[in-house]
Design a protein that fits this description.
The chain folds into two domains: 71 residues, Glutaredoxin; 143 residues, Glutathione S-transferase Yfyf (Class Pi), Chain A, domain 2, CATH 1.20.1050. The chain is an alpha+beta fold. It is globular and about 50 Å long. The structure holds glutathione.
């Protein structure tokens, strides 16, 4: 049996959930609280989630999980064999995980209006002290991360210009077909989708998405093709 261990509201959950849904592989979900960090570190020393447990075997990074799933359950492939296409899928997945991720996180959890709505959702299941305390420290903690990464040093206006350039890039890629790489759904679509799905929870980023109907249609296509029990 597969168990996906997750924190609430992480885009990386959705990338893996949709991959498993598409391949028709049943899995259980276990959600951990931010207050459970020590228990999480017992199976993943980085303290990060998601983590995948498969009959006692652990995989602890969503990219590693995606490759593990693809190797273990090769039907309905999501990572192409062709080296050029495989390279393109890798580059797009890495762009989503290592660039778009910081935009969605910064916009959802540190910008006015979005922060007040999304942080309570993130901590809704924590014990009462942490439900009170975490909203006071999470925005500052995330700002520290994005300042170190770089984007957190830009003005909000500049960040939104960048975000629109990213959405526009996907819009441009969709001029050539229904999916980002070649003519079929791949891990690249799921990774980028997962970040744009989080953009929807930030009013300023969602307004950008809404200006690109081909991107909205592509997101709907992914939802139809990979639906299951995701979205918690
Ligand atoms: N590269 C990792 C990133 C996972 C990640 O950053 N997860 C966040 C939640 S969105 C996390 O666990 N944060 C807690 C922490 O950094 O301590 C992956 O692809 O799985």
């Amino acid at each position: 049996m597969l168990t996906l261990h997750q924190y609430h509201l992480s885009p990386f959950n959705e990338k893996i959930q949709r991959m498993l849904n598409y391949k028709g592989i049943p899995f259980e979900e276990r959600y951990w609280l931010l207050g459970d960090r020590k228990k999480v570190e017992a199976f993943n020393p980085t303290g990060k989630l998601p983590a995948l447990e498969h009959d006692g075997h652990w995989v602890c990074d969503s990219t590693d999980m995606a490759h593990y799933i693809e190797q273990t359950f090769p039907d309905k492939p999501l990572i192409p064999d062709d080296p050029a296409l495989r390279g393109m899928v890798h580059v797009l997945e890495d762009w989503a995980d290592e660039s778009l991720y910081f935009y969605e996180m910064h916009l959802r959890f540190t910008t006015p209006g979005n922060q007040e709505r999304n942080i309570p959702r993130m901590v809704a299941n924590e014990k009462s002290f942490l439900r009170w305390f975490l909203p006071k420290v999470i925005p500052g903690g995330i700002r520290k991360i994005t300042r170190t990464q770089g984007i957190g040093r830009k003005s909000l206006d500049q960040l939104l210009v960048d975000a629109e350039r990213h959405v526009c890039a996907v819009d441009g890629m969709l001029n050539q077909g229904d999916w980002l790489v070649a003519d079929q759904l791949s891990l690249a679509d799921l990774a980028v989708y997962a970040m744009f799905q989080c953009f929807r929870d930030a009013d300023n980023a969602n307004a950008i998405l809404q200006r690109y109907p081909s991107v909205i249609d592509w997101m709907a296509r992914i939802e139809t093709t990979t639906s299951g029990n995701e979205g918690k």
